[in-house]
């Protein structure tokens, strides 16, 4: 089973659309194995976005995810990363198709509403950054045969 990390950023919490977005992922048949509301520290933000450290948008990126509470989630399923990326939509809101999370809820890249792992390797790294293994609840889905 592949794992992916998803973060609903402060704008989602402030707009009170957390449930709507989680529902979209659940309806796809993905398995939620970790969920917590948290304030992201500067240290975690720096580790999370380490590949962007030299880019001009880095300070704003870190500033946004540390500006308020986020919803950190770990999801599991076959081809989990690819499915979540499709549901999430293009990073640039103007390129995101209607019906995707970014296409429906996001206007500006600098206030993107959601982060989703971009590869299975990133998924494993990011899940481990935000969750200890004992915080994850791997369970048997009785409906798996229908998905």
TrEMBL record:
Pfam families: NDK. Keywords: ATP-binding, Cytoplasm, Kinase, Magnesium, Metal-binding, Nucleotide metabolism, Nucleotide-binding, Phosphoprotein, Transferase. GO terms for molecular function: ATP binding; metal ion binding; nucleoside diphosphate kinase activity. The active site is at 115 (pros-phosphohistidine intermediate). It comes from Candidatus Treponema excrementipullorum. Belongs to the NDK family. Signal peptide: none annotated. It is an enzyme of class 2 (transferase). Major role in the synthesis of nucleoside triphosphates other than ATP. The ATP gamma phosphate is transferred to the NDP beta phosphate via a ping-pong mechanism, using a phosphorylated active-site intermediate. Its cofactor is Mg(2+). This is Nucleoside diphosphate kinase. GO terms for biological process: CTP biosynthetic process; GTP biosynthetic process; UTP biosynthetic process. ATP binds at residues 9, 57, 85, 91, 102, 112. One of its GO terms (cellular component) is cytoplasm. Its main location: cytoplasm. It is found in: Cytoplasm. PROSITE patterns: NDPK (PS00469), NDPK_LIKE (PS51374). Residues 1-138 form the Nucleoside diphosphate kinase-like domain. It comes from the Bacteria. InterPro entries: NDK-like_dom, NDK-like_dom_sf, Nucleoside_diP_kinase, Nucleoside_diP_kinase_AS.
């Amino acid at each position: 089973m592949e794992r992916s990390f998803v973060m609903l950023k402060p704008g989602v919490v402030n707009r009170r659309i957390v449930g709507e977005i989680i529902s979209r992922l659940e309806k796809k048949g993905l398995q939620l194995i970790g969920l917590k509301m948290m304030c992201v520290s500067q240290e975690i933000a720096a580790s999370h976005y380490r590949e962007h450290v030299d880019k001009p948008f880095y300070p704003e990126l870190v500033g946004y995810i540390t500006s308020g509470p986020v919803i950190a989630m770990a999801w599991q399923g076959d081809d989990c990363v690819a499915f979540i990326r499709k549901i999430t939509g293009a990073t640039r809101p103007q390129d995101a198709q209607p019906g995707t999370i970014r296409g429906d809820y996001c206007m500006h890249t600098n206030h993107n509403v959601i982060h989703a792992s971009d590869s299975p390797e990133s998924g494993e790294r990011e899940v481990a950054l935000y969750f200890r293994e004992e915080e994850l609840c791997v369970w048997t889905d009785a409906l798996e045969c229908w998905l």
